[in-house]
Design goal:
This protein has about 260 residues and is mainly α. The chain contains ten helices and three strands. Helix 7 runs parallel beside helix 10.
């Protein structure tokens, strides 16, 4: 097999791993996917190491120069849809359903098969409203949660577009949630459940997936990656708490 084919295998495997890491996949799952793709080369030495902030992959054999790629992961966000798509491409390739060229093409164009911004924003907005219903909120709470849900959706949308760091974005969003809730419950004396409004609104901000994946990485023996994800989740949770607390304090001092 020509060397160019090896490079294509490497490019495909690293691209798959990069997409998965940026989508907050477990590191052991990333290593399995990268290794599975590279094993189709039938070379003797195949290594893949994934951590939260990087990916290293190597192809080597006695009759060729080693190919090693190091990929830095700077931005991460939870995207289970991308993880599913990458797993599907990897599975179809290893089963011989598609070629390596087709797999690489699918991965390069994976953003074209994602949900558009409108659907994502609608999902966040609806999710907040449904959480209120699940927690037993009244119809009056549902109505006055609408502007808070819309505000959270807008902050999340533009924050991700402007590449704001997750903990900063969540702190700003939670601060505004608390401030708006203080204002609405003060202006509208209809017995609104302010605590329920806040809990519902911060649900999309909570790092539940990062915490879960971090714990799973730790159980798989990836202590560095797992510990980093758990720490990141705790930092985000702390910044959310700071935002909520600051909003309530300032709202109280302003008489809201």
């Amino acid at each position: 097999m020509p060397e160019m084919d090896y490079e294509l295998y490497m490019d495909t495997a690293v691209l798959a791993g990069k997409i998965m890491l940026e989508s907050n996949a477990e590191t052991y799952r990333v290593e399995e996917t990268v290794t599975r793709i590279l094993k189709k080369t039938n070379l003797e030495m195949i290594d893949a190491i994934a951590i939260t902030t990087g990916l290293i992959a190597t192809l080597d054999s006695p009759n060729m120069d080693a190919i090693t790629v190091v990929k830095r992961i700077s931005n991460r966000t939870t995207n289970l849809n991308k993880i599913t798509k990458v797993n599907d491409v990897s599975r179809r390739f290893t089963e011989g359903i598609i070629t390596i060229q087709e797999a690489y093409s699918f991965l390069q164009n994976i953003d074209e098969i994602q949900y558009d911004a409108f659907r994502k924003n609608l999902a966040i907005f609806s999710f907040i409203q449904m959480i209120l219903i699940m927690y037993g909120g009244k119809w009056i709470d549902f109505i006055f949660l609408l502007p808070i849900s819309a505000t959270v959706t807008l902050i999340t949308h533009y924050g991700r577009r402007w590449m704001v760091r997750p903990f900063i974005l969540d702190m700003v969003a939670s601060f505004i949630i608390a401030l708006l809730t203080s204002f609405i419950t003060k202006v509208v004396p209809l017995g609104l459940q302010g605590d329920l409004l806040i809990v519902s609104a911060i649900m999309p901000l909570l790092p539940g997936t990062a915490m879960t994946n971090g714990v799973r990485d730790i159980f798989k023996g990836d202590y560095m990656s797992g510990g980093a994800k758990v720490l990141e989740a705790f930092v985000i949770a702390i910044f959310i708490a700071i935002g909520i607390g600051s909003g309530l304090v300032i709202g109280g001092r302003l008489g809201l």
